[in-house]
Amino acid sequence: MATYKVLVVDDSPFMRKIVSDLIEADATFQVIDTANNGLEATQKVMELKPDVVTMDVEMPEMNGLEALKVIMAQRPVPVIMLSGINEQGMRETIMALENGAFDFIRKPSVSNSQDIQEVGQQLLRQLNTAVHVLERRRKRAEQKNMAADAAPSPSLPQVEKKREETITPPPSQAAPHHNKLSVEESSRRPQPGNLNPPPVGRPAPPLNNRTARPGRTEDLKPSRPAVPPKPAEPRTAAPSPLKPAEPKVPKAPAAPVNPLARKEPEKPSVASSAPGATSDGITGKTSHTDVPAASIGKLVAVGCSTGGPRALKSFLEKIPANFPAPIVIVQHMPPNFTRSLAQRLNSLSQITVVEAEQGMPLQPGTAYIAPGGYHMTVVRSQGGYRIQLSQEPPRNGHRPSVDTLFASIRPFSDLQRYAVIMTGMGSDGAKEMKNLYDSGVIPTFAENEDTCVVYGMPRSAVELGCVNHLLPLPEIAPKLVQIVK
C-alpha cells in the first residue's frame, strides 16, 4: 500500500499535534513535517514535496490564504484548509477555495474529544479523496502521454500547412458577410456533445450542442452572438487583496445564524429586505410569506460539492444581470459558511446572490444558495414560487442535498427547468437529474472531467445517461445563457 506524505501547518503546537495524530490514525498517510506559519510552509513544500498539505487559515507572518497562493503558483498540491468559525476565518476560507484549495474543514474544539474524533473522520475522508484525485490525474496524464507518443509525427508539409492556418485569419473573420450554416442546418449533423438524445416522443433540445474538446475553443461558438452585448451593469467592488495577517488575536466565534430569520443587507432589491416580511409563526422570526411572489416561467437548479465554491464563482460571474430566471443552488457546506459564500459571490456577480431564507419568493436574476444544515426545496405559493427550508434527515449523507432540491422541481411542468451538476465527490443529484430527464426536463448540464476538482457527481449523472451537455466549466454558463435567453 502506498504511503502519502502530509505537511501539517498551524501556528498552535497543540493543534499541530492533534491534527498529526488524527492523520496518522490512517496508515495510508505519514506526517513528514509541520510548519508554524505560512512562510515556513511555502519553504517546506518546495523542500519536502508533500503529497497533501493541511493549512490553518489564520497565522502570523504569512496567513494560510497568502501561503496557498504561493504554493499554487510554485508547486501545486492539494491543500485542505482548517478554518475557525469566526467571520474572518470563514471569509478567508471561501477565498482560499476560490484560489485553489482542495477543500476545508472547521477546526475541532480542543476541549471536546467527540468533536475532535468527528473532525478527524472528516479530515481523513478529504485526504483519501485528495489522493484518489491525484492518482486519477496521474493516470490520465500517463494515458495522454502514451497516446501522444503513439501518434505519428506530422510531415513537413503538414506542419507548414498548420502554421499557415494559425496565421491566416479564418474566413469567418476575414469575410463576415459570407453565408453560414443556420442552426437548423447545423442541427442535422451528428452532435458529439449531445451525449444522450431525448427519449422517443420528447422534443429535441432547441439548440445545437457540441462537447468541447481539449485545445478546441470553436466548438461552442455560434455563428453570431446568441445574446447581444449589454452595457456593464453596476456591481459591488470585490474586496481588495488581503494584507499579510497580523499576529493572531483570539476572536469570539460567530453566533449561529438562523436562516429562517436572517436578512441580507446587500443589494436592497432582494426579497429579503422587502417590507412585507413578517413572523413565520414557527420561530417567531422574520419570514417572507407575505412578500408577493414573482411570476416566473423558467428555473435553473444547480448542485455541487468539493470544488464547488470555485466553480460557482466561475459560473455566476458569467450570468448577466438581466438573466430571466432564478437560480437555486445546493453547495455541500456547513452552517454559517454558506452565508459567507453567498456574500462573496454576491460581490463578484452581476446578478444578486443570497443565502436562501424560509418563504423567500423566487425572482429572476437572483441566485439562492441553500443554507448549511437545511434542505432547500421549491414550492408553489401565491401565483409564484418560494423557498422552503427543512431539517429533515440528511439524504445521500448531505443536508442540504442536491437530490432533494431536484426532486422538488420535478412536478412543475409549467416551468421550463434546467438542471446543472458540477464538481463534487459522490453521486448526490444524479438520481433526481435522471428522474427530471425522464420526465421531459431538457437540456441538462454537467461539468466534464477536465475541469472538475472531483469528477464524482457529474460522472454519476453521465453514467445514468441523463446529461445533454457535458462541458468544461468555463463553457457551462455561456451555453446555459444562450439557451435560456
Characterise the protein shown here.
With 485 residues, the protein is an alpha/beta fold. Helices cover 33% and strands 16% of the residues. It contains 14 helices and 16 strands. Strands 10-11-9-8-14-15-16 form a seven-stranded parallel β-sheet, sandwiched between helices. Strand 12 and strand 13 form a beta hairpin. Helix 3 packs parallel to helix 4 and helix 9 crosses helix 14. About 25% of the residues have low confidence.
Topology (SSEs and partners):
Elements: E1 4-9, H1 13-23, E2 29-35, H2 38-48, E3 52-56, H3 64-74, E4 79-83, H4 87-98, E5 103-106, H5 113-150, H6 156-167, H7 171-174, H8 183-186, E6 278-279, E7 286-287, E8 298-304, H9 308-317, E9 327-331, H10 337-348, E10 352-355, E11 366-369, E12 375-381, E13 384-390, H11 402-409, E14 416-421, H12 430-438, E15 444-447, H13 457-463, E16 469-471, H14 473-484
Helix pairs in contact: 1-5, 2-3, 3-4, 4-10, 9-14, 11-12, 12-13
Residue share in β-strands: 15-25%
Give the rounded overall mean pLDDT: 79
Give the number of DSSP strands: 16
User: Given the helix and strand composition, which structural class is it?
Assistant: alpha/beta
Largest sheet, if any? Answer: 7 strands, parallel
- Cα-atom Rg, whole angstroms? 24 Å
Summarize the amount of helix as a percent range. 25-40%
Order of helices and strands: EHEHEHEHEHHHHEEEHEHEEEEHEHEHEH
| End-to-end CA span | 52 Å
